[in-house]
Amino acid sequence: MSSPARIMIGNAREHPLPLRVASTVGIVGMAAGVPILLLGARAYPPVGGMLHLVLHPDLLGHLVAGPFTDDIVTKLVWLGAWVAWSWLVVCVGVEVIGVVRGRAPSRVPGSRHIQALVACLVGASLAVAVPARHQHPLRLDAVGVQAAPHAGPQAPEGSTRATSLRSTRPTRSTQPPRALVRSGGTGPDRAPRAHASETAWVTPAPPTYTVQPGDTLWSIAGSELGSPLDWHLIATANYGRVQSDGQALTDDHWIRPGWLLVIPPVGSPVVPVVPVESSSTVVLPRLTTAVSENGHPDAQKTDARVAPGREVPGREAAPRGVPVLPIGYGLLGAGVVALLDRMRRAQQRRRLSGLRIALPQGDVVELERGLRLAADQGAAEWINLSLRLLSVMVRRAKGPPPPVMAVRLREDAVELLLDPGHSVGPPPPPFENGTTGSSWLLARSGALMEALRADREVAGNDAPLPSLVTLGKDERGLLVVNLEKAGSVAISGDGTACLIQSIAAELATSAWADQIDLVLVGFGDQDKGLERVSHSDSLRAVGQKLERRIRERQALLALGEHATNAETRWLDGGDAWDLCVVVCSSSTSAEESETVASITSLVGDGSFGVIAVFGGSVPTARWHVRAEAGRVSVEGASPGWPSVSGQAVPSDLVDGINSLVTVASDTDGVSPHDMPYSALSMPIPELVAVPERGRFAALSHDEGSPGGRAHLVTTNVDVLVLGPIEIMGAARPFTRAWAVELVVYLATHPGGVNNDQWATALWPDKAMAPASLHSTASAARRSLGTSESGDDHLPRARGRLSLGPGVRSDWDRFVELSRSAGHEEWRAALDLVRGRPFDGLRSPDWALLEGILATIEAVVVDVACRYAEHCLVALDPAGAEWAARQGLRVSPYDERLYRVLLRAAEAAGNPAGVESVMAELVHLVADDVEPFDAVHPETLELYRRLSRRSLASRGN
């Protein structure tokens, strides 16, 4: 038997010894040397003086009013020195704690630059001392084994004997070493040791990649994994891994040059694990790949990407716990989500009693989840309102419109990038000149945003740049380009399909593209619910329509004072100057290359309101966009434009969005026994619709309630979800926001849920480590406390959680009360309503996508209408109005409640109230629902009848 050989495997970059020593000396010198120097200079900490001022605040006025002597100046200087030293010590402590715990350090407010310096010093200093737990080298004791006369275990392909392992440190290695040991061992520093009857195999470790300047997770996934859409696999494999500068990858997904990233093997799902001790195996790495029962890496491929809109043959549903891929950089998701929300308001208004609104199923649910994760409504609102403001200011000044090539959304400002080939005058206030001389800036502030929202002239003005689409993102912000300045655009590279899809989706849904007719060529001929979108199979047919449109636009421009379609829209406005944008797929562009050339010649520079975007190489196009390896660059536009990182979108995005919109356009409603409502485990009362005047049959009685009266269960803890989230009666305050979210989720899933289910609901975009899930559940358990019997309100269970009987939600009480046949209980149920359900949740998407929110809305509205009918029959119009208003707090767009208000106003003899209710409804529809729906014919007929009665009574 050969002698044991000790092997060390590490993946952290080593710092040179002089750097480590210098960093350590620097840290110690700043932390200990500064106070020693200050004390040596007799500059003592002014603790006593500060405490004296706190106890006697009236002395502060005397100090301010007194003379400003040299002694006071000296004391202020010493005070500043002590404050700066304390600030530095806090930053050092935060960084050290973060590195030792193996997590990204917390951010100290106002300390971005000093914390970055401290991070470098701490990262190098700790290399001399105890390394962070994620930098621990993996030590293995490899034991040689005598050859056996029979066949032993077969080595995995590509593995080597542990005794012959050699360590390498390539920048991008194809087979860097990793140990896979099937053995046992004990002791914190001892390696797992193989028994004589076993063989210790060492298999290749996941490759590593050193981040270069300009790299992104998208580009690295494209070059290393073969698809940029697999970027989340790299992110999951590197969350929390402390890098050489002391930083770590977090959910903002910024990476820095010089970082060493683990590249997971293609086809093996990355699963976060924690150290698990066993009598036979010790699992040390934080991340590992799936391993089959025989110890070999599992060859089955798990694809985390979701094909929206349809089931893919041969593909199983993505397993729970796989992070959802955020789709786009915010503007795409904001447009689609806003569109879906408006259409679902129309669904609410037209829903029949006892039914539910239609919600998406299957893969499209994950598509919507990804869009909602990435949606940045604030960014979309800033771009939309700032451009409408600029249009108002230009129109007032009656000056030439600015030649805007692109818009960059920065953290501090909206920057308009102007065409350097055109001379422009000073910008209209509140816009200012940029530092380069070829841009205008609008500083972002909360006060300005509130003013823009309240300004009806700004909000009601036409969008001056309807063809803005996201190009990508760099360190300075989000870059959105104006396609109208190009006229024709050709997109090439391996990212063509994704970029074409995202352009089409943004033009179809964004708030500033309401003056666009979008023609999709080669995307299918399905007639979907996107009202500004039409489909065509042939460019030839589209070309004929474009010729007619350009001739009409030329004739209109000849009658006016302006030369181009864009200039007229800026200065005059109106729907006569809308745009027609043709987006053609790569396959159709290749098949009809001659037609492509004629269309680019026809549209010219876009002066006549027609734009063409083609997939593939089109030499005659004015702009050439290259989407390669996750980077997007433009040729033919303004010189000096940066190369930006492209959006991560599925290749069939438009198809999926069409599916979402088709479902949202269904205003007939679905049965509560259909999916997803049939899968809900929370209690739901049975509501039965009856003819119009009676409106509802009696609610089903609770079998355990004599006489139909509800029997409420006494509880220790109440979870309030019918309004702002509150937890009443807990043993101690909740110190973790996510623990509150967990309790709310469990309260709406009384049957219990497994860990993957609630983790996916709360953190759909992250693969949470079991330790994090455990700590969240433990925090919730401590805060909830125990029942009178001493049992935990959140019982301990392996892999599955459910609340104990001592924890109930106000929804449970609502259901119990509404099941009664007595109108007092109905009113008591409505009294529980405090506002919009689940208000204040950090992660509310699960309530929408699972159908929980729609169920609560439907039931509350039905009970409100039931109680209102009782009040109207009992000649209590005030009670009917109160019930309707309670229902509107939950479902503000349900038109049946407005019909109740109209009837209540009429029953109270209040004709002005009838007019006021109708005006309120029209205003609501115009602002929040149009152009997707109008006032329901039944509501309009009721208003006309009641209004004529009011006029007749006034005439008498």
Descriptive report:
This protein is α+β, with helices and mostly antiparallel strands. The strands form nine sheets. It has an eight-stranded mixed β-sheet with strand order 19-18-20-21-17-22-23-24, sandwiched between helices. It has a six-stranded antiparallel β-sheet with strand order 13-14-12-11-16-15. The protein is built from 29 helices and 29 strands. Helices cover 40% and strands 12% of the residues. It starts with a strand and ends with a helix. The radius of gyration is 33 Å and the shape is globular. Among the domains are: 17-125, no CATH class; 377-658, Rossmann fold (3-Layer(aba) Sandwich), CATH 3.40.50; 677-892, no CATH class. β23 and β24 (644-645) form a beta hairpin. α14 (539-559) runs parallel beside α17 (593-603), α25 (852-873) packs antiparallel against α26 (877-890) and α27 packs parallel to α29 (937-955). Mean pLDDT is 74; it is low at 1-15, 126-203, 268-320, 688-714 and 950-956.
Write the SSE topology.
Layout: E1 5-9, H1 17-40, H2 47-55, H3 58-65, H4 70-101, H5 112-125, E2 138-142, E3 160-161, E4 201-202, E5 208-210, H6 217-224, H7 231-238, E6 260-262, E7 270-272, E8 276-277, E9 282-283, E10 287-289, H8 331-350, H9 363-374, H10 377-397, E11 404-409, E12 413-418, E13 432-433, E14 439-443, H11 446-454, H12 456-459, E15 468-474, E16 477-482, E17 488-492, H13 496-509, E18 516-521, E19 533-536, H14 539-559, H15 565-571, E20 579-584, H16 586-591, H17 593-603, E21 610-615, E22 623-628, E23 631-635, E24 644-645, H18 653-664, E25 717-720, E26 726-728, H19 737-747, E27 753-754, H20 755-762, H21 770-784, E28 800-801, E29 807-809, H22 810-818, H23 823-831, H24 845-849, H25 852-873, H26 877-890, H27 895-907, H28 911-928, H29 937-955
Parallel strand pairs: 17-21, 17-22, 18-19, 18-20, 20-21, 25-29
Antiparallel strand pairs: 1-2, 3-4, 5-6, 7-10, 8-9, 11-12, 11-16, 12-14, 13-14, 15-16, 22-23, 23-24, 25-26, 27-28
Helix pairs in contact: 1-4, 1-5, 4-5, 6-7, 8-9, 8-13, 8-18, 9-18, 14-17, 19-21, 22-23, 23-25, 25-26, 25-27, 26-27, 27-28, 27-29, 28-29
